[in-house]
Amino acid sequence: MIGPIPLSHVLLASGALFAIGVAGALLRRNAIQIFLSIELMMNAANLALIGYGAALGTQQGQIIVFFVIAIAAAEASVGLAIFVAIFRHTETIDVNKINLLKW
Amino acid sequence: MERLIFDAAALVAIVFAGLMVAGRDPIKSVLALAVSFFALAVTYVLLLAPFIAALQIIVYAGAILVLFLFLIMLLNVGPERPDGVRRPVQTFLGSLSVVVFAGLLLGMLRASGARLPGQPEAVAADALPDPKALGRLLFSDYLLHFEAVSVLLLAALVGAFVLARRENAQ
Amino acid sequence: MTETFVSFTRADLAAIAPEIALVATGCLILLLEAFAPRLRRWFATVALAGVAASLWFLVQAPGGTTFGGRYETSSLTVLMGLFLGATAVVAILVAKPYLERTGEERGEFYALLLWGHTGVMLMTRGLDLLIVFIGLETLSLAFYVLAGFFRRVSASSEAGLKYFLTGAFGSAFTLYGIALLFGASAGTRFEDLSRPGLADSTAVTFGLLLLLVGFGFKMSLAPFHAWAPDVYQGMPTPAVAYLSVAPKGASVLVLFRVFGAVFEHGMPDRFRTGVAALAIFSMTLGNVVALAQRDAKRLLAYSGIAQMGYVTIALAVFGRDALAAVLVYFFAYLVSNAGAFAAVSALYPDETKPHPVGLLAGAGRTAPFPSAVLALCLFSLAGIPATAGFIGKFFLFKAALEQGLYALAVIGVLNSLVSIGYYLKVVYILYMREPIEGEAPPPLAPADRLALALCGAGILILGIFPASLWAIARQAAATLPLTGP
Question: CA-CA to A59 of 20 to 30 Å: which in A91, C25, C105, C262?
């Protein structure tokens, strides 16, 4: 229990978000939506970290999330720069035309 | 009451995450994800992490997702059109792996949630919202991490510059 | 009342001096690029000096842990640091003539390489999951950019995109694994993971599996390998020479540390079976698909997937000798694989085009030295006796046999036999075919010559006198609290 909130609810929500993120990353063929799905997976991990931290009575969970947010921001900046570079290159703005060999 | 709000917020986060994944229009996807992140911020407040909730809104929803929106509009990315190519094997394999994975993950989390080692009955006093303690922890136990992240941010900064600057800049 | 809570001691400074040297050198090169671009031809030398300074600081650093038990300096980290530093040296030596030929010599390349190298150092020395994750991300961000460094070349940009998406996907798995392990151990340090009862917990097992998936992506272990051939093909070859060696070694060490902390009393059989299955799948898939490859860099990518399968055998064997075998294996892999990429870089005239193996026809006559080193590297990768690769495989399979994992060792040996097929095919093309008119290899630059000579000498020295490295590796492996022989 975290106050009145049971930890199992937190973990179930986090697991559901992670699974949705994995589904999106695997099934979408649009680079932007794949990356959004990956962001969702990281957020699912953040929710689990904060839930565990609160249940364990430690602030370390929040510290980890603090660093993860910094890393996610850095990753987003590099990722979007890569998207810009490849769009500029292929001279198409249609992300679907980038042939990602996914399987 | 808190439990009810938590469940409602978590449900909103999950539903909008689903909309994000299912939508064909990238702009709608980003907006759905923003709603999902706001709902997550609500759950963070209820889980005694108001500082992270603020960061979630300022950095995730405020900076990262707005950057995405900006990029989509800059590059004028339209909705995804069905390209007419069906990939039945890949879709099947992808869906199968996702279903198996989701089942495993949810089952495992449900099973393990009940028996956490050293799980307290109530919230411990030092876990109450206290940014001061957070800062203290950040600059004592996690000092090395803080320094390491600065290298990461530097690399990301220079990297983004290398990739996005114009070819004729030399 | 002012109270100091930032505790940063002299010992802490000495411990991270190697990393500071690398980061500072990167910054210096970047500033020179901005304000004194005429000094460009000295950038590689500056970068080499930075790596050398970092190694010197690493050897000088007093042993023990710093930053509250979160950072380690020991014979193990020094040995790993030497391995990583040597990889960086080869990559920089190859990069200089390569970038000059392509007209892309810019300071950012060396700076990002050095910062990525810093990330790998953090991975090998950190005793804390979060440090490892930050190091991993630093490495990844730097190399996403290096993969897409040739923005004029479509394949390079695409390599950047593919590496970024798969890399970020893998990182998310790693992060969720860290979250589960944190929930079970209430901390991020490896020593928190050795609390009793954790090894049987479902959440911990699942967290370890997620970590294995995340690092599997970084190691290009099948079935998480799909990015490797495309990325290797499009990425600048010197960056591939580093990426295909150093991060893999660091990832394996991290997995050894985490498993060692959780499984204090030996690895459970169920888990061992899973890891062994991963090893067999990766070896077999890598070797079989490599037989059909026509592009030199793709061939080396699939060969790398197979080689990581062999390394995963050691993870299944799990024990002190297995870790020592992995250390020896990675030194052998460094000289053979980085050497092979160095030779590929020196043998192909146009870097921006694909690298078909057929173009190497007759190179044994037109470019005798790089061809000879390439052949030597391929022999070593195949595990022919008297080369470094043979020694690496010998200790790995020996560790598996001593642990009673006969099937794994036999499958490994059979796979090595299959791999000889495609390695020898390249050697055959090098020496038995007539040279193609007008497709001469570029003139050999002094830096290339040095890198090739170092790798070739390393293969022979390790292959003929392996005893001292084995003794050092065994001693280094003893610093990890692993069970077993």
Answer: C262
3-state secondary structure of C71: strand
Strand-pair partners of C73: C64
CB pair distance less than 8 Å for B147 and C16: yes
Tell me the pLDDT tens digit for each residue of B53-111.
Answer: 999 999 998 899 999 999 888 887 777 666 555 566 667 777 777 777 777 777 776 66
Nearest chain A Cα distance for residue B87, angstroms: 11
What contacts C353, CB < 8 A, 6 or more positions away?
none
| Section B39-63 average pLDDT | 92
Query: Which tens digit of pLDDT belongs to each residue from A73-90?
Result: 999 999 999 988 888 777
How many Å lie between the alpha carbon of C135 and the closest alpha carbon of chain A?
A: 11
Q: How far is B170 from chain A (nearest CA, A)?
A: 17
The parts of chain A modelled with pLDDT lower than 50 are 1, 93, 95, 100-103
Task: Look up residue B110 and give its two tokens.
Answer: 């449900």
CB B27 within 8 A of CB B72: yes
Are the C-beta atoms of C318 and C258 separated by less than 8 Å? no
Per-residue pLDDT reduced to its tens digit, C6-42: 778 888 999 999 999 999 999 999 999 999 988 888 9
Contact A2 B47 (CB under 8 A): yes
Which letter does DSSP use for residue C334 in this model? I
Q: What gap in Å lies between CA C119 and CA C3, rounded to an integer? A: 32
CA pair distance C280, C229, nearest whole angstrom: 19
The answer to whether residue C319 sits within a structural domain is: yes
Mutate to test the interface with C, among B104, B154, B157, B168 (most CBs of C within 10 A): B154
From CA C54, how far away is CA C56, in angstroms rounded?
Answer: 5
- A46, A79 Cβ separation under 8 angstroms: no
Q: Which of C131, C142, C198 sits opposite B159 (nearest CB)?
A: C142
* Number of domains into which chain C is organized: 1
Contacts of A12 in chain B (CB under 8 A): 106, 109-110, 113
- How far apart (Å, rounded) are the C-alpha atoms in residues C462 and C391? 8
Q: Report if residue C367 sits inside a domain.
A: yes
Determine the structural domain holding residue C396 and report its residue range.
Answer: 268-485
- Tell me the pLDDT band of C102, cut-offs 50, 70 and 90: confident
Q: Where are the domains of chain B?
A: 1-79, 130-170
Neighbors of chain B by Cβ distance (3+ pairs < 8 Å): A, C
Whether C115 has its CB under 8 Å from any CB of chain B: the answer is yes
Residue with tokens 């070896």: C283
- Looking at domain B1-79, its CATH class is mainly alpha
- Residue of chain A nearest B106, judged by CA positions: A15
Touching A: C residues 211-240, CB under 8 Å: 226, 230
Domains detected in chain A: 7-94 (1.10.287.3510)
Assess: ipTM above 0.90.
Answer: yes
Distance between CA atoms of A54 and B43, rounded to whole angstroms?
12
The string of DSSP codes covering C281-331 is HHHHHHHHHHTT--BHHHHHHHHHHHHHHHHHHHHHH-SHHHHHHHHHHHH
Nearest Cα to Cα of residue C206 among A62, B101, A40, A50: B101
Nearest by CB to B108, which of C115, C131, C203? C203
Measured between beta carbons, the chain C residues lying within 8 angstroms of B166 are: none
Task: Tell me the whole-structure pTM to 2 decimals.
Answer: 0.94
Structure tokens at C465: 């006198």
Q: Is residue C450 part of a domain?
A: yes
Token pair for residue C416? Answer: 């090595």
